[in-house]
Records
---
Amino acid sequence: EGVQPQEYTLIKMKVNPPFTGKLAALEGKNVYLAAATLRPETMYGQTNAWVLPDGDYGAFEINDDDVFVITKRAAMNLAFQGGSKVPGKPNCLLELKGKDLIGVALSSPLSVNPVIYALPMLTILTDKGTGIVTSVPSDAPDDYAALMDLKNKPALREKLGVEDKWVLPFEVVPIINIPEFGDMSAVKVCQDLKIKSQNDKDKLAEAKRLTYLKGFLEGTMLVGEHKGTKVQDAKPLLRKMLVANGQAVMYSE
Ligand code: A2H
């Protein structure tokens, strides 16, 4: 972890009923996969959520209404930031593996896709954020590479227990223009660098380096209520709106 605290927005991706498998124990509760993002203004382009299949997660009581599925480590941090009934003491209702979450249907704030699914990503770190990542393949090279892995490799879908209908209907959504990279910067940079999979670590780091700062400084919103405004202006407004509407909470570590 860095020296400076990182401020994330936790996006509340609501689990849609019916609750099946292990999640059945949570039936009747407001359960969310809480995804840590630095880019709340990109939420229009969500196509899925990412979980680590072998990762350890829990369903934690955040307050009287909400249950968040996150890592234990994140629940502990959140419990010191107002995200628990008893300060500093997270209450785990149910332990889960990432595998238990694959295929769960979600409604996520701002997404142009009304229903998206939790899918496996093998490069998720369990010591960063919540261990849940929301996927915006238009603007995040990691997300684009991992989505293409699942779309283009039926054997990988089979191995990871991913059904076609959770992946194949979802197209990359143009949401931000960056003059140098067009309307889907992650797609362009992944293609330019010939990134072949989510495991192309060095190339993905380079892709992120190329797009990240430019997106913030030179990006313009193509969609939503701040269409036409700069990313750097839209970002704080959308973050504030999501938090005020109860669709997100702030989290730092
Ligand atoms: B970002 P930083 Cl559109 N493991 O959100 C791996 N990656 C994780 C993670 C974890 N445990 N937790 C969060 N992340 C991702 C959106 C996005 C992000 C866009 C573009 C770039 C981007 C949609 N995915 O991040 O190391 C999340 O993906 C580029 C770095 O703390 C989060 O923001 O800087 C970002 O990494 C946080 O990474």
Note: The chain is about 25% helix and 25% strand.
---
Amino acid sequence: MPLIVISGLPSSGKTTRAKEILNYFNDRFNRERRTNRVHLINDESLGISKDSYQDTRVDEKHSRGAMLSAVERLLSKDDLIIADGMNYIKGFRYQLYCVARAVGTPHCVVYCGVSIDTAREWNTKRGAEGYGSTVFNELVSRFEEPDDRNRWDSPLFTVLSDDTSVSCDAIWDAVIVRLPKPPNQST
Ligand code: ADP
Ligand code: MG
């Protein structure tokens, strides 16, 4: 089952969008009587606090390592993974892409395309739940925007701040490989 990589600035609505995708896939799997499971992996599920990003790149490396090993452990033919993190370093998105390749399963990137000013505004509104301003600025300055000319960023689905919903139908069509009908069922 596919790996869906979320990417975006801090407080750009990644977890909000990731949960929308999670619900869509759970509902549709149920409706189509498929037994596939969906896993949402993010800092909250990994038990990583926002303070882990305090300033050193060492802590941030730790959170990337936790994300990568969770994806490696959970991604399978039967389970779909939503990797809900900033995933803002292209080398890291490349690593995630390689995990999907190794499992022989499709992958795509969903980019929360929100301006820095909007992300900052949403971050401020979160109060103590949000990132401190120094951390926020540092993460923003290191962000490498997904580019679908790179195979590890393709197919790319961009969701803008005022989009009411994610194009989940299009994501489904792109990543759920339809199994061919068994030959004896054809007329
Ligand atoms: P991230 O996972 O990228 O840090 P969240 O999904 O947790 O971001 O959202 C950060 C904050 O922005 C939350 O307080 C959320 O309610 C708000 N938010 C998310 N998406 C939108 C939106 N489309 N419009 C307005 N506010 C939003
Ligand atoms: Mg989040």
Note: Residues 14-31 form the longest helix (18 residues).
